[in-house]
Design brief:
The protein is of the alpha/beta class. It has a domain of 163 residues: Rossmann fold (3-Layer(aba) Sandwich). The chain has nine helices and seven strands. Strands 3-2-1-4-5-7-6 form a seven-stranded mixed β-sheet, with helices on both faces. Strand 6 and strand 7 form a beta hairpin. The radius of gyration is 17 Å and the shape is globular.
């Protein structure tokens, strides 16, 4: 696997002038960006694979929505049982080009689809669906509808694995959690300018919910149970079972 290209997207003056986009500039550094920006990213990937390996059944489909450069699919390819088809969806052609290269020698059958899941994507014969840091980028208006479609296309006892950034109800704790997150980014080598510019670029693009709101969405979508399996200040992982 090629070495990660260092994320310096928000060192450039023009980076503060527009909303965040998953374009070629971001795709080229995405692996470094996400591993440095998301606390315990590697551990969340490991936990996702651990759970997915138990739920994925031979002869079924495993969907990764917002698959980006294919990191999760590549890890899943190494742990799920034979006969599971891996399907990656993303609306960024630049991200999917990276994923195609990364998954060229996958053991499982892999299909990569460039589409906006807000536009009526269907999910069939799914034993596992993963959405890692993806739902938060979707307009709130579309979230419940998407989760309903996922649940409808999922087999009995299938699971949805979500990882999301959060807000919390208490304004003081919310401020503290954000401060702790920015301190994490400083420890990862990001400058104050980079942190500020990225925050401004994401302001109208990333809309986090409270954990209670996400759990209620899953319940309304038709999942019979859901549990938080990971929590770090304003990040969490949730598994929901149909």
């Amino acid at each position: 696997m090629t070495e990660k290209t260092k994320d310096q997207v928000f060192t450039l003056p023009d980076s503060a002038l527009s909303d965040f986009r998953f374009d070629e500039k971001v795709a080229n550094v995405f692996d470094d960006m996400v591993s440095r920006s998301v606390p315990f990213y590697n551990e969340m990937q490991r936990m996702t694979c651990e759970m997915a390996a138990d739920f994925a059944e031979s002869g079924t489909n495993l969907y990764d929505i917002g698959c980006s450069t294919g990191t999760t699919l590549l890890a899943l390819d190494q742990v799920v049982r034979p006969g599971v088809k891996l399907i990656g969806l993303d609306n960024s052609p630049e991200m999917l080009e990276k994923a195609k290269l990364k998954l060229a020698n996958a053991e499982h059958e892999v299909e990569l689809l460039c589409k906006d899941v807000n536009e009526g994507s269907s999910f069939e014969n799914a034993s596992v669906v993963t959405m890692l840091l993806t739902l938060q980028f979707m307009r709130p208006l579309y979230r419940e509808r998407l989760l309903q479609r996922i649940c409808q296309g999922m087999n009995h006892n299938g699971c949805l694995i979500l990882i999301e950034k959060l807000v919390v109800s208490d304004s003081l704790l919310n401020r503290f959690f954000i401060d702790y997150y920015y301190e994490h980014k400083r420890r990862s080598g990001y400058s104050e300018v980079e942190i500020t510019r990225k925050r401004e670029a994401l302001e109208n693009v990333l809309v986090p919910y409270r954990v209670e709101e996400n759990l209620e969405l899953l319940k309304q979508a038709g999942f019979r149970s859901s549990e938080v399996f990971f929590r770090w200040y304003n990040f969490c992982g949730i598994i929901a079972v149909k």
